[in-house]
UniProtKB/TrEMBL annotation:
Pfam families assigned: HAAS
InterPro entries xref list: Perm_prefix_1
Keyword annotations of the record: Membrane, Transmembrane, Transmembrane helix
Statement: the UniProt record of this protein carries the keyword Transmembrane helix: yes
Taxonomic path: Bacteria, Bacillati, Actinomycetota, Actinomycetes, Pseudonocardiales
Transmembrane regions: 82-105, 111-133, 145-171, 177-195
The name this protein goes by in its record: Uncharacterized protein
Amino acid sequence: MPGDLITRYLDELAARLPRTGRAALVAEIAGGLEDAVEHHRSTGLSEVDSQRAAIEEFGAPEAIADEYAPVAATAQAHRYGLAFMTTGPLIGGLWVTAIALTAELPEFTRIVGGLLLALVLVAAPCAVFSVVATSGPLRVRIRSVVTVLSVTAYTAIIVDLTAIAVLTTLLATTTTIAVIPAVIAGVASATRLVMATRGALALRGTRAALV
């Protein structure tokens, strides 16, 4: 069928693009191809030859994907960097409030709290760096930014899993914990845990595409 060449081209391009911004770029390329096909058709070429000429003008799908990958990765890294940078202080504040309202804390909770603080001190600078490094003239090699942001995502996963585990233990072993603030903090951590897990997986795929 006449449309098969264009359809196969767009399908192959979509398969090579990262998820971020894929639909918009494919739609843009499809529109450009349609205009190019129309132009070649007006010169007397057949439908199939017009499509072949248009595809040749646009170049191979892998070339377009390779050119677009850093752009998509930069947008993705900036978005996740902002997400981690804004949720970090919010969730940290919720946990600090819950702890401050708890009359007595078991010793292991203090130890875990120290571990969480150490991890946060790693994740926070990474998140800030990711935002700054993907902004304006300060942009650096995007694969390095994605790597740093992956560290942030995995750190957030460790922090939230540990915090939820501690909360579960405290709810089962002590009656002095401020339940409502602690549960609010736990829900916030669980929400970020889902986001961080998705981010870690997405960033791993993006990093592989930037080889």
